[in-house]
Design a protein that fits this description.
about 450 residues; 19 strands; 3 domains; globular; FAD/NAD(P)-binding domain; alpha/beta; Fumarate Reductase Iron-sulfur Protein, Chain B, domain 2
């Protein structure tokens, strides 16, 4: 290391324990009964409700809000959960500001939309807190389905299949079910181990066997599953992270954001988690914002997010961008990384300004700038690990490293369905993955009964 190179400043306990606990407390406190009734009263209960149309899982939003008004919380929760069994988590992490609330007829310059997300949480939280089972299984079909993946798509599919009377085995590569709900979402969005509470509720319907620590491509192949089960659903998510393609990308101090978020989510004591004094995040999606805000809340002095395009093109919603800014994060647009500097550890990232040419294509300019960093997080998206899965999913049609499916989730094989982030054309949202799992389960049910 050069004698002039600054030592990386990465350590734990940058803040006192009470500060950390405050920083990672509930982002949005739940509504009280009086607040919920006031919020529900603002709904116009539109006949052709645009909010329901905008919901990827087709929840009858005016219907569940009307039940809140009449103090029928159990009925309200059932209206939500029969369409979206992950209604509790989606109430916390779903980008309602660009979905149902964006479509709300009250959403004008003079007024704000109905607080649909908070109302959804108000209705569903008591169900998960008390583990009140609202659903029963149909008569046993004698059929058995393999579900690969214990995230939102897989568990949604498994729950609906169980409701329809089929036996299900869920193969989950992780130590806990939940997928990104457990390992990939900012800790301040889902406190008190809610992801596991929700997974426990989903599995409690019966007829679902969970096998943790078993992964497609390592312990399982599609051929063996097809031989042993009547149908297969694949909801493996995206197990590999994208690369920038820069020469010194593997230099110590350059990390994948999703891996650090997983470590943070599983940490028993956040005070012991090391964080850099100066953090640079490369990317513009929800993961980039999550890692940036959490780094700041762990005590990083300076956090910079750098994205190659403008704010309108960022995958993170405007609400998330504003959250980052109010948390002390600086967002830089129209720049891309071109070099990591440092001998034994990253110290600086060099960026080049970008712009759109006359054809609307992103192009680099000659202007460059640098940001010092103790830690750099890459948050530039994930991809299906096709190298790992190539033999395991032989026979499945893929496109751009994702599985090709029809509108029911059916793949190119007659007894295999897929959904969630691993399929082509997805938008990488929890709520979309849940819908994929539900729709595929109903298609699998039709297939099994015809068979």
């Amino acid at each position: 290391m050069s004698h002039r190179e600054q030592q990386p400043d990465i350590r734990s306990q940058r803040l006192q324990k009470d500060e950390i606990e405050t920083n990672f407390g509930e982002l949005h406190p739940p509504l009280s009964r009086s607040e919920a009734l006031i919020a529900a009263d603002r709904c116009y209960f539109c006949y052709d409700a645009p909010c329901t149309t905008a919901c990827p899982t087709d929840i009858d939003i005016p219907g569940f809000i009307q039940k809140i008004r009449s103090d029928n919380l159990r009925g309200s929760a059932r209206t939500i959960l029969e369409e979206n069994i992950f209604g509790g988590m989606c109430a916390r992490v779903c980008p309602t500001e660009v979905l149902c609330e964006e479509a709300c007829v009250r959403h004008t310059h003079e007024d704000k939309p109905v607080e649909i997300g908070l109302l959804q949480r108000y209705a569903t939280d008591p169900i998960f807190d008390k583990q009140t089972q609202l659903f029963t299984r149909a008569a046993a079909s004698g059929k058995k389905v393999a579900v690969v993946g214990g995230g939102p798509a897989g568990l949604s599919c498994a729950h609906r299949l169980a409701m329809l009377g089929h036996d299900v085995v869920v193969f989950n590569r992780d130590a806990k079910p939940g997928g990104l709900n457990e390992y990939g979402i900012a800790a301040y969005k889902t406190v008190d181990d809610f992801a596991q509470k929700e997974a426990e509720y989903i599995l409690s319907i019966g007829g679902i066997e969970l096998r943790n620590g078993e992964a497609l491509g390592e312990d399982l192949t599609l051929d063996t599953l097809r031989d042993a089960y009547d149908a297969v659903f694949i909801g493996v998510g995206l197990g590999s992270t994208n690369e920038l393609g820069l020469e010194r990308e593997s230099i110590p101090g350059v990390e994948n954001a999703i891996e650090y978020i997983a470590e943070l989510r599983q940490a028993a004591d956040l005070c012991k988690l090391p964080v850099g004094r100066r953090v640079v995040v490369i990317g513009g999606g929800m993961t980039a914002i999550d890692i940036a805000v959490q780094s700041k809340r762990l005590g990083a002095e300076r956090v910079d997010v750098v994205y190659r395009r403008g704010p309108e093109q960022m995958g993170a919603s405007q609400y998330e961008q504003d959250l980052a800014k109010t948390s002390g994060v600086t967002i830089h647009h129209w720049a891309k990384p071109v070099e990591f500097k440092g001998d034994a550890h990253v110290t600086t990232v060099r960026f080049e300004r970008t712009a759109l040419d006359k054809n609307g294509r992103l192009t680099a300019t000659a202007e460059r700038f640098e940001l010092t960093a103790d830690t750099v997080f890459k948050a530039i998206g994930q991809t299906l690990d096709t190298d790992l899965l190539r033999d395991a999913i032989a026979g499945l049609e893929t496109q751009h490293d994702r599985i090709v499916v029809d509108n029911t989730g059916k793949t190119s094989l007659p007894d295999v369905w897929a959904g969630g982030d691993c399929v082509a054309g997805g938008d990488d949202l929890t709520v979309t993955a849940v819908q994929h799992g539900k729709v595929a389960a109903m298609a699998i049910d039709r297939y099994l009964r015809e068979d």
